[in-house]
Specification:
Elements: E1 2-8, H1 13-27, E2 31-39, H2 47-53, E3 57-61, H3 76-82, H4 86-106, E4 110-114, H5 117-126, E5 132-136, H6 153-166, E6 172-176, E7 189-192, H7 198-201, E8 210-214, H8 218-229, E9 235-240, E10 245-248, E11 251-255, H9 258-267, E12 270-273, H10 277-285, E13 290-292, H11 297-308, E14 312-314, H12 320-329, H13 336-342, H14 344-353
Parallel strand pairs: 1-2, 1-4, 2-3, 4-5, 5-6, 6-7, 8-9, 8-12, 9-11, 12-13, 13-14
Antiparallel strand pairs: 10-11
Amino acid sequence: MKYLFIVQGEGRGHLTQAISLSQILRRHGHEIVEVLVGKNSNSEIPEFFVDKIGTKVHKFDTPAFALSTSEKKIKIWKTIISNVTLGKLKKYYKSTEFIHERIKKCKPDAVVNFYDMMAGWTNFIYRETTPFINLGHTFLIDHPDYTIHSKNKHEKLLLRINNALCSIGATKILALSFYPMQKYHRGNMIVVPPLMREEVKKLNPINGEFILGYMVRNGYLNEVKQWHRKNQHVELHIFSDKNEIELNPNFVMHGIDDEVFLYYLEKCSGYITTAGFESICEAMYLGKPVLMVPTHLEQEINAADAVLAGAGISSNSYDIGKLLEYIESAPEKSDTFNKWVDSAEEIFLHQLTTI
């Protein structure tokens, strides 16, 4: 079968999911005809993704998150307001035209949407006849047995609306989960395991003596720097969109490089992150305790769910001391999560080839 991918390109999570799924499909003789990545006009598609996805990649404009003045938290209402200007709406309409034209030209047997809203709007405007399969962890909030919920009713409602907009016209919704759940007998939702790249599965994790981090927001980088000034004996390796620089012998900043990141993830003693789903899954698979500091509601749900699954701890600040304490008393790693992840190939092949 032939598949066209549409990927929400904010961060690295959806991008690495797309790489993982492309690896599974190609191993079984299927083809990824093209990949369309939603990014804001000022950002580029990461080089690691272009190198690994193995097919033509095109960029289109999609709504971007707006940050607080401290550049830490994503502000939901500010995001909405900044994305509904006349100029932005014209760009997004052109994005739907572009997606529609690529579907007409490539003639895929199915479109896989990695949580981009423009895919849903394209389906709404053009009533595509090609089956759409939507994929994401956030869809789980609509499962009746899901127990992780936010107290912020307004943000939760907006997240449900975003789920609905992303999945307009979807034939199937594949809800990624840290753990198996009962089949949802209403609607078109199927609970599936996380997608793990082969590069991660081939690693041989060891417990090193440094903490690894991944963050692209200046506010949190400054917070980590302040913590380290008082704890310079702790070795940190932090990946961000800044150029590589050694702040001191025990604090090294790395530019975004996926292969180098996996090298350090394999050898770290713990991992700090803003609670992107895929990043947490990679750390869990390798048995690395995680400190999660979510920036918005989707990540808050990710973090709460990951804590329930035994990934580590959640916090509202990068107090790395909390992670160091957790590492000392962390329970021995179970193989339950890895077995669930390792079942993904069979499950995804079935769901993507029976439409």
